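Outer membrane protein beta-barrel domain-containing protein
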Amino acid sequence: MKKILMILVVVLTMGTTAWADDRDGRIQIGTGLLYENGMDLTIGYEYETRYHNAWEFFGNTYLKWDKCASCGHVCPESFWNNYKTWGLGVAYKPCVVRGRNHHGNLRLGGSLGSGNRNVLGGIHVGYEHSYSLKKEWQLYWQVKSDIMIEGKDLFRTGIVIGVKIPTR
């Protein structure tokens, strides 16, 4: 799993060129920690429209770990095999803050996926702040709040950090 993720990051990094301007697409990769005992990985495509408003099409995976019943602490078995979900979704991101080399967006969206062989729906609300780097790359952080329908956990909230890679 780790090797596949590293290969994906290298291919995406090398496969994109360094020229992009406003209203172009970006591939975004972000990971973070969510309450309670959750880890999130999101890979998506962001299409920026005028004034830094954007549409995001994303795939998301979520892992929730727990303490092991036999040893009483988090071990590799209880970390990787407790509860996992995945989903595909779309989010609209209207810009609410603009600065010289940064901007902030609300993130409003929905997703559909699966968790433990059940259909899982999600409503996503949050705030994302992006910082412009050289060659049109962006670094971002995101405060996420997800309401999950038919999942083990109804409410997820946390912080995600990531990078946006230009695609042109």
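thats it. The CA atoms of residues 27 and 100 lie 22 Å apart. Residues 2-166 form a domain with the Porin fold (CATH 2.40.160.20). bye
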